[in-house]
């Protein structure tokens, strides 16, 4: 009798350095009818270590290759489409999330052409400005859009060569954990994306104050006092901060290039011309 | 060695008033609180200058707001452009006066204020003037909007040049500004206010509030300011980042540096030595992007050091107005004290100190060009910004070690690479975490070329197309 077969349930864990560990704190919380890991300060620090370790390889890979890997993420997400629908994600949002990976995949080898410049200096010099990744970006994911919103903040940060530590939405974290499974099978090197479930209000201050994090995306912070304190903590090592949106975001709209350029540095190289 | 007769530039071209007020809404406003600005080369008082209070800053921000709402944001870009072109032209016309005044107030050699600072100031206004009616082509959308009122705080090392870097793009994008010059170098900014009057710039578009830290704090924390731009120390930059946290103010910061100047064994040695000297002794080393850490490949160490010492012995330290002077006065007693303290720490921590024989004037603030050898990465003189004519020399063996050492700093403003091998330049340039990489050159600036830092050297770019982004709502 097949109907008597006991289903195999999934344990929802963290995603750090390409692996799926439980929280080192041993904590979990009940949400969306599942036990989900409740990340701790130590998990934040482990995730930053993993993200930092991945920077050199990921930023050093070719733009072409990064584009291929992001496109692979779209392929994998397409294949798991029904899982996300089963988690309660509207079909249109799942489709938009897939298309968003495709959109950003195509940016990998174009953003430097759009955002860089040859500069006509008044002298015999070659002078070129090109964008480079900032490094490790801490991201508080948007709570209102657990899949499309998440993809819309992760993809633009990593397509240019950054690595991320993402604090998933507290109330609807299952899409984030399932997205981690997509990424784990997309040839994305371990550590490029790290996802922590739990309470961002508890973990975000550690991320904002971490001295080995280069930038902070507060897309999902809805508490103004928390946003201010995170921005203040970020000032200690002058993290680049993308503030919470002033008005509600339509995550389905054309995202533009702003989420990529917010986490890019411009490097300008000079060299004399001569014989 | 040649003997030089003094060749002083005449100071009669400048007409310094005994006292200056604040420049608010196109007019000079008297102020109660005042202090003196001195010539650092001889400690002579040059003028008395207002130190704007919180309520005076408030008045300036209100004037800037009114000018923004009523005039500047409504004016077509092509008209804004013409005002900026006018300003650029007047700066050129009054170039010699501005250069002499800058050298008097700052202490920098007239050769630099005349040949570097002032020409770049004019070029900067020309460059951004041309953008004012072309913003829709800059890659920020068809009709990018200005932010509103910009509060700008600038340092004392390039007083007029930093003013130009701040004001030119702000006005081109349609913002109005309240600018605070540094308390030790306010004079060229005050002459710039006169230039705004001469150009008939609408009142309130540019407001100059002189003063010290409290004035700056009042400006950046004023709720009527939409944009804060700061150039200065990382410590103050951090405080400003905290002060604007939780507001919607857009912030750009150009902060400190501890740049590595990396010399490989195949570098053209004479050019490299010129680059090392220019890198650390230009403007008395009061340069955030100064090449203050020399990294020499071990095989070339003796040769480079010998050539560097020979070259340093030829540097002429003295009267900033003398056209033969290479190194002028340290800008203030406080800065001199910091340079002395860190240099003493350098010796105490075990590095070897060397300066060429050099006679320093009796009055004023002076520091001989200095190098430290035997410096390790742990030494404070290898980690902290000295902001003076003091070079720390370290060595390396492989390109990978050079990259490792160059990047071993919380700063990331600039770096230099000297080698004849093209592929190595590009390999190094890819790996150096710095906003500007000078290869086989150093300390070059141009209005078309973006400048700004990685990491704790700040964020945002000044110059070039990128420089517009700091002043547009994008």
From TrEMBL, chain A:
Record has Oxidoreductase as a keyword: yes
Domain Aldehyde dehydrogenase: 34-241
Keywords: Oxidoreductase
InterPro entries: Ald_DH/histidinol_DH, Ald_DH_N, Aldehyde_DH_dom
Identification of the protein by name: Aldehyde dehydrogenase family protein
Species, as recorded: Phytohabitans maris
From TrEMBL, chain B:
InterPro entries for this protein: Ald_DH/histidinol_DH, Ald_DH_C, Ald_DH_CS_GLU, Ald_DH_N, Aldehyde_DH_dom
Pfam families: Aldedh
PROSITE patterns xrefs: ALDEHYDE_DEHYDR_GLU
Gene3D superfamilies linked: Aldehyde Dehydrogenase, Chain A, domain 1 (3.40.605.10), Aldehyde Dehydrogenase, Chain A, domain 2 (3.40.309.10)
UniProt keyword terms in alphabetical order: Oxidoreductase
All residue ranges annotated as the Aldehyde dehydrogenase domain in the record: 28-473
Location of the active site: 254
Family classification: Belongs to the aldehyde dehydrogenase family.
Protein's recorded name: Aldehyde dehydrogenase family protein
């Amino acid at each position: 009798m097949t109907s008597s077969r006991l289903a195999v349930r999934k344990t929802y864990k963290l995603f750090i350095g390409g692996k799926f560990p439980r929280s080192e704190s041993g904590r979990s919380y009940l949400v969306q009818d599942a036990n989900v890991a409740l990340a701790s300060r130590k998990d934040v620090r482990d995730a930053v270590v993993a993200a930092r370790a991945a920077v050199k390889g990921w930023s050093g890979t070719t733009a072409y290759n990064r584009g291929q890997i992001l496109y692979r993420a779209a392929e994998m997400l397409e294949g798991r489409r029904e899982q996300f629908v089963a988690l309660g994600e509207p079909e249109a949002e799942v489709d938009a999330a897939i298309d968003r990976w495709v959109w950003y995949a195509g940016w990998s080898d174009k953003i430097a052409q759009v955002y860089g410049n040859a500069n006509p200096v008044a002298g015999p010099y070659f002078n070129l400005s090109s964008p480079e990744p900032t490094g490790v970006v801490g991201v508080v994911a948007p709570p209102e859009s657990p899949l499309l919103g998440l993809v819309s903040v992760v993809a633009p940060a990593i397509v240019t060569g950054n690595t991320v530590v993402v604090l998933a939405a507290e109330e609807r974290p299952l899409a984030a954990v399932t997205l981690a499974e997509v990424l784990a099978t997309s040839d994305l090197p371990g550590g490029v994306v790290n996802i922590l479930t739990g309470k961002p209000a508890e973990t975000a201050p550690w991320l904002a104050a971490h001295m080995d994090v280069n930038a902070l995306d507060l897309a999902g912070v809805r508490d103004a006092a928390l946003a201010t304190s995170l921005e203040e903590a970020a000032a200690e090592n002058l993290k680049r901060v993308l503030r919470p949106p002033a008005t509600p975001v339509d995550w389905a709209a054309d995202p533009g290039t702003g989420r990529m350029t917010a986490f890019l540095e411009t490097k300008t190289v000079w060299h004399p011309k001569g014989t | 060695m040649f003997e030089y007769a003094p060749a002083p530039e005449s100071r009669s071209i400048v007409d310094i008033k005994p006292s200056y007020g604040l420049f608010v809404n196109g007019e000079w406003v008297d102020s109660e609180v005042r202090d003196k600005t001195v010539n650092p080369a001889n400690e002579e008082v040059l003028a008395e200058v207002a130190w704007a209070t919180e309520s005076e800053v408030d008045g300036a921000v209100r004037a800037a707001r009114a000018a923004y709402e009523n005039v500047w944001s409504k004016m077509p870009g092509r008209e804004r452009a013409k005002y900026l072109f006018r300003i650029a032209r007047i700066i050129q016309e009054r170039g010699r006066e501005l250069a002499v005044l800058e050298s008097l107030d700052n202490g920098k050699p007239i050769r630099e204020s005349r040949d570097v600072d002032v020409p770049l100031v004019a070029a900067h206004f020309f460059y951004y003037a041309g953008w004012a009616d072309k913003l829709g082509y800059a890659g920020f959308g068809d009709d990018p909007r200005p932010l509103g009122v910009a509060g700008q705080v600038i340092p004392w090392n390039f007083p007029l040049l930093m003013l130009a870097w701040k004001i030119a793009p702000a006005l081109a994008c349609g913002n109005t500004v309240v600018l605070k010059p540094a308390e030790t170098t306010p004079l060229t900014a005050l002459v710039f206010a006169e230039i705004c009057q001469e150009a008939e710039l609408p009142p309130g578009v540019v407001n100059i509030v002189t003063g010290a830290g409290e004035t700056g704090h009042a400006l950046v924390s004023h709720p009527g300011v939409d944009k804060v731009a700061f150039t200065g120390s990382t410590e103050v930059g951090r405080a400003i980042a905290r002060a604007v946290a939780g507001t919607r103010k857009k912030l750009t910061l150009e902060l400190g540096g501890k740049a590595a100047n990396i010399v490989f064994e195949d570098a053209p040695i004479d050019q490299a030595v010129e680059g090392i000297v220019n890198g650390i002794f230009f403007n008395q080393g009061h340069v955030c992007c100064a090449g203050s850490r020399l990294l020499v490949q071990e095989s070339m160490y003796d040769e480079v050091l010998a050539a560097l010492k020979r070259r340093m012995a030829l540097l002429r330290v003295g009267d900033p107005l003398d056209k033969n002077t290479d190194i002028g006065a340290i800008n203030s007693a406080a800065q001199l004290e910091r340079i002395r303290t860190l240099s003493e720490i350098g010796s105490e921590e075990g590095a070897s100190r060397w300066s060429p024989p050099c006679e320093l004037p009796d009055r004023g603030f002076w520091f001989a060009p200095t190098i430290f050898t035997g410096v390790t990465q742990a030494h404070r003189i290898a980690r902290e910004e000295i902001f003076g004519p003091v070079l720390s020399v370290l060595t390396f063996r492989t390109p990978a070690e050079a990259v490792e050492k160059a990047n071993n700093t919380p700063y990331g403003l600039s770096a230099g690479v000297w080698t004849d091998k093209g592929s190595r330049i590009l390999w190094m340039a890819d790996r150096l975490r710095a906003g500007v990489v000078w290869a086989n050159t150093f300390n070059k600036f141009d209005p078309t070329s973006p400048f700004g830092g990685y990491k704790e050297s700040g964020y945002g770019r000044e110059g070039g197309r990128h420089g517009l982004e700091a002043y547009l709502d994008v």
